[in-house]
Amino acid sequence: MLNKDSILIAAVALIVGLLGGYLIFSISRAGKSGQEAPAISTGSGSPADYSRRIAEAEKIVAQDPKNLNAWISLGNDFFDTDQTQKSINAYGKALEIDPNNPNVLTDQGVMYRKVGWYDKALANFEKAQRIDPNHLQSLYNMGIVYAMDLKQPDKATEAWGRYLKIDSNSPTAIQIKGLMEKMGSGAQPAFK
Hints:
Blueprint: H1 4-33, H2 47-63, H3 68-80, H4 84-97, H5 102-114, H6 118-131, H7 136-149, H8 153-166, H9 171-184
């Protein structure tokens, strides 16, 4: 006869097994169908969580190199853990699968900026804009590169003006207005 502890352990093992099977099935299915499903489970963002998710995603792409969501997850986790070149490479693999993803283009562009490849960053932001003219994050980052890195306030103002035509009231829009005011006064905007 089974005691309560044995039954509880068996129930927990069954639930964990079902969830694990569901996760693996949904990851492999999402990569093959191109549907938007999370490639890797998310965590709190601790170093251990990132390491675990990176290891999981690396296993997935080793078995299924066309798994878009796993490549994006790798790019995002490398982005968040300051592994710039690995992030650029993972996003590059994702863009080989889906070259018209404005979010991935923008995230890769941010990483290009971080290593000082401003022309590549701008090319990514511009491509994201051609794909989706209302893609706000690419416009925001385009303005950042022009204002901070290339010292071209007119081009920054143009990019941010396009942003403000789409969104004029969000916290980001208010931040952009403040940055544009500082540029207009000759003060260098402060960025994080």
